[in-house]
């Protein structure tokens, strides 16, 4: 043992790593192999769960977005960066559609809570991260039309989640159709029974209230 | 030891100290007794609560509360939570810094955020807010000084989205804008 | 507890030079690379020797506690990531544990194992980078840091695949975790754990016995055990002073009682001990990880929503009461004190930040040493300003 042995040993490690960085294949995961890539030209494969900024999803036409402007994401957003106004029809009745859907990307902190709480699978986190701009007031305040993206885009960036969401939505649609049918049948049966009862007891006709037939517009 | 046993244990050794169980903790009724109680707990052979984990304040609107979490480095199974309640207008609490140095920054933070006056603290200054800051931001009745003021940009944005803005807000924004401009000296006078 | 080579150092007395000197006040920071963020020290120097040191903080203050008191419980989770941004998983765990204590939620086994795996990986990430930065502060310019970051990157890749984000994970939820670990990801973690000891050996040989490092570290910034306990110091810093106190052993929270691991202790409490205790702690973390990866079994990763307050996580309202939850975060005891009034937002939310309280003894450790030593001592405390200023 002499003074300087530790230094020499350390330098040996540095030298070995220097050599290994040439001999071992880059990105192979071996100890000493280089892990960096030359960014703008080369890119690492994106992880499926990677989240950056949210986008709104639509199925066929941009007018029919899945979002029903229920305001749940806006209320649950931790930094409150989502602003939603419902669209109204001519009579002034609010519709299940957003007229304004703004997300301030300067405030958004990429937590993904909006995606988690959305009951309609309408908002998801995107992989797009190169959105730098010289104007932070207008260019980074994304409006409804800037946020719209297709279901195909979602399938492209997150294939597994895309499949899962699609099957879930199809199942929900089927269940809803079945439920509607069952409800319709029940209503019909009830109406028939009522008519029958009315015919039988014409005097006590006012007992039952007419069954409510719900007319729900499709959320999609 | 249960909370009740600890209470009796302290009261036996420190006559005159009034304690009251609150939830899972002991309330020291007279804040001036606190250093005595803590010193006793620290030196006590059974409890040995020689590690002060956390000091913090809570605002309950009618009074302020200071909460202390005590643990032990030797007797690892027991922990105790102490609290004192003080008046909102005159929140004087004896400092624990002479007993536990670990209270130094935490008491400064409680002073900064809630306005507790820790008597006996060697260096009671603001720690997170800057010197000369007025008010105690964590109190429930604290109002941010400019929370009512809207920027010109804010007003434009709101109006664009169909939100009507009161006249006084617009006036205030205008005055702020012109005030900000007039602050800048138009021509600097050089002195010989 | 452990053996290491100690190089004999000479203490040079620089006190009496016989010259008529005056003290000099130097501001280190807030924009100084060696203060690890926007931290400022007002140092009074006599020649090169520190006479007094005043830490000044608050440059990154955003009143995290008040923000949390105005949003729901679950919305605080991503904010806790930003406390100590090197260890978001540990911060998540502390906050989740506190709320679970308040609402009395039982967590399934698999979720507990995932939490342990994640927080131990976090410990590796934290210790490896703090050692890198500490050596950087001593003048080993960026070779050890990048050496450490190469390994850290592999763990961050796992975090990204699991949670979606490399640093701001936001992965834990009340009652479990956000999503399950796949077998693929478990395999990835196993490979990291298998490769890590070889890296640690290299990392240790690189500088642990380097004579210059030993001279800079040993007998510098000594923290006696009594002072450490008295000043509420926690974490590797306390253990470096020889006090056997680790919340993983004391509280046995989560499933830590099922693992066998030791608590490395220092002898003197100087900078070298703090450096070396972290090195040894990583090896213990690897032991825990190996056991956890062996013991983890398939199962639910989220508690069935039995308690009334968890039925609808969006409108989560814990019962009236209060809780103090603490975990052994890589920097020390991270505690959350929460008071609930039964509404959607906490009435009081307090963070007991380890690196904030560990700064209490900075002055006591620095007095009498040179200015360059003060930088090294600060580096050995391991502060992150997101947590100090909150």
Characterization of this structure:
The complex is a heterotrimer of chains A (220), B (192) and C (390). Chain A is built from six helices and six strands. Chain A is an alpha+beta fold and 220 residues long. Among the domains of chain A are: 16-45, no CATH class; 54-171, Alpha-Beta Plaits (2-Layer Sandwich), CATH 3.30.70. Chain B has 192 residues and is α/β, with parallel strands linked by helices. Chain B has helices at 3-13, 34-43, 103-114, 152-160, 167-183, and strands at residues 19-22, 25-28, 51-59, 64-71, 80-86, 92-94, 117-119. A five-stranded mixed sheet of chain B has the order 1-2-5-4-3. In chain B, strands 6-7 form a two-stranded parallel ribbon. The longest helix of chain B is centred in the last third of the chain and has 17 residues, at 167-183. Chain C has helices spanning 64-69, 76-81, 88-103, 109-137, 143-163, 183-207, 211-217, 225-230, 236-240, 247-250, 271-295, 354-358, 362-366, 371-381, 385-389, and strands at 23-28, 40-46, 49-56, 172-173, 176-177, 321-329, 332-340, 348-352. Chain C has a three-stranded antiparallel sheet with strand order 1-2-3.
Assigned CATH class of the domain at 54-171 in chain A? Alpha Beta
Largest sheet of chain B: 5 strands, mixed
Computed CA radius of gyration of chain B, to the nearest angstrom: 25 Å
Assign a percent range to the helix content of chain A: 25-40%
- Mean pLDDT metric of chain A: 80
Structural class of chain B: alpha/beta
Shape of chain B: elongated
Question: Which CATH architecture of the domain at 54-171 in chain A?
Answer: 2-Layer Sandwich
Task: Quote the CATH topology of the domain at 54-171 in chain A.
Answer: Alpha-Beta Plaits
Low-confidence stretches of chain B: 180-192
Beta-sheet strand percentage of chain B?
A: 15-25%
């Amino acid at each position: 043992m002499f003074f300087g042995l530790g230094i020499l040993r350390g330098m040996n490690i540095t030298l070995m790593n220097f050599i290994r960085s040439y001999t071992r294949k880059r990105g192979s995961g071996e100890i000493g192999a280089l892990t960096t890539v030359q960014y703008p030209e080369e890119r690492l494969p994106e992880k499926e769960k990677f989240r950056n900024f949210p986008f709104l999803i639509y199925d066929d036409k941009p007018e029919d977005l899945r979002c029903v402007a229920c305001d749940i994401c806006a209320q649950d957003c931790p930094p409150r960066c989502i602003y939603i106004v419902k669209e109204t029809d001519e009579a002034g009745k609010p519709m299940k559609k957003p007229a304004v859907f703004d997300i301030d990307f300067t405030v958004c902190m990429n937590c993904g809570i909006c995606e988690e709480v959305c009951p309609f699978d309408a908002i998801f986190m995107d992989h797009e991260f190169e959105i730098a701009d010289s104007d932070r007031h207008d260019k980074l305040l994304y409006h409804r039309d800037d946020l719209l993206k297709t279901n195909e885009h979602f399938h492209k960036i997150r294939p597994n989640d895309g499949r899962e969401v699609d099957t879930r939505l199809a199942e929900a649609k089927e269940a809803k159709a079945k439920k509607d049918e069952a409800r319709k049948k029940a209503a019909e049966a009830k109406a028939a029974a009522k008519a029958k009862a009315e015919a039988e007891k014409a005097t006590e006709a006012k007992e039952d209230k007419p069954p409510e037939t719900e007319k729900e517009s499709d959320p999609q | 030891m249960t909370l009740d046993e600890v209470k009796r244990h302290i009261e036996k050794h420190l006559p005159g100290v009034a304690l009251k169980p609150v939830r899972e903790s002991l309330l020291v009724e007279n804040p001036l007794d606190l250093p005595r109680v803590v010193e006793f707990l620290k030196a006590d052979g059974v409890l040995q609560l020689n590690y002060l984990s956390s000091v913090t304040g809570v605002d309950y609107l009618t009074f302020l509360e200071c909460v202390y979490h005590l643990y032990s480095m030797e007797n690892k199974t027991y922990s105790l939570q102490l609290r004192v309640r003080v008046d909102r207008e005159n929140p004087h609490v004896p400092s624990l810094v002479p007993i536990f140095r670990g209270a130094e920054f935490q008491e400064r933070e409680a002073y900064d955020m809630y306005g507790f006056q820790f008597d006996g603290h060697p260096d009671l200054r603001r720690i997170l807010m800057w010197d000369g800051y007025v008010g105690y931001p964590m109190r429930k009745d604290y109002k941010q000084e400019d929370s009512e003021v809207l920027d010109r940009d804010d007003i434009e944005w709101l109006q664009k989205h169909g939100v009507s803005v009161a006249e006084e807000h617009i006036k205030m924004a205008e005055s702020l804008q012109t005030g900000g401009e007039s602050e800048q000296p138009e021509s600097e006078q050089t002195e010989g | 507890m452990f053996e290491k080579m100690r190089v004999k150092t000479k203490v040079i007395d620089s006190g009496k030079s016989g010259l008529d000197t005056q003290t000099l006040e130097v501001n280190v920071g807030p924009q100084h690379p060696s203060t690890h963020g926007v931290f400022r020290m007002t140092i009074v120097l006599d020649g090169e020797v520190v006479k007094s040191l005043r830490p000044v903080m608050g440059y990154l203050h955003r009143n995290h506690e008040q923000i949390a008191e105005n949003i729901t419980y679950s919305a605080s989770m991503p904010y806790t990531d930003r406390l100590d941004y090197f260890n978001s998983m540990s911060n998540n765990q502390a906050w989740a544990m506190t709320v679970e204590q308040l609402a009395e939620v039982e967590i399934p086994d698999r979720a507990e194992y995932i939490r342990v795996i994640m927080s131990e990986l976090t410990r590796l990430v934290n210790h490896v980078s703090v050692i890198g930065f500490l050596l950087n502060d001593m003048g080993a310019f960026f070779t050890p840091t990048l050496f450490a970051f190469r390994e850290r990157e592999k763990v961050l890749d796992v975090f990204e695949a699991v949670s979606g984000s490399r640093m701001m994970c936001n992965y834990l939820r009340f009652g479990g975790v956000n999503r399950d670990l796949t077998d693929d990801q478990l395999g990835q973690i196993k490979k990291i754990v298998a490769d890590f000891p070889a890296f640690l050996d290299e990392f240790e040989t690189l500088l642990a016995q380097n004579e210059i490092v030993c001279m800079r570290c040993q007998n510098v910034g000594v923290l006696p055990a009594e002072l450490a306990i008295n000043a509420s110091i926690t974490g590797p810093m306390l253990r470096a002073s020889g006090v056997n106190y680790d919340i993983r052993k004391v509280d046995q929270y989560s499933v830590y009682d099922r693992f066998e691991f030791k608590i490395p202790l220092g002898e003197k409490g100087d900078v070298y001990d703090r450096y070396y205790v972290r090195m040894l702690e990583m090896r213990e973390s690897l032991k825990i990880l190996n056991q956890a990866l062996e013991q983890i079994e398939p199962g639910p990763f989220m508690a069935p929503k039995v308690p009334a307050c968890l039925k609808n996580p969006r409108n989560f309202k814990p019962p009236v009461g209060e809780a103090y939850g603490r975990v052994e975060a890589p920097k020390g005891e991270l505690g959350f004190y929460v008071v609930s009034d039964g509404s959607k937002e906490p009435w009081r939310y307090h963070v007991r930040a380890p690196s904030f309280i560990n700064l209490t003894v900075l002055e006591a450790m620095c007095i009498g040493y040179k200015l360059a030593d003060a930088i090294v001592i600060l580096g050995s405390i391991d502060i992150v300003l997101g947590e100090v200023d909150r």
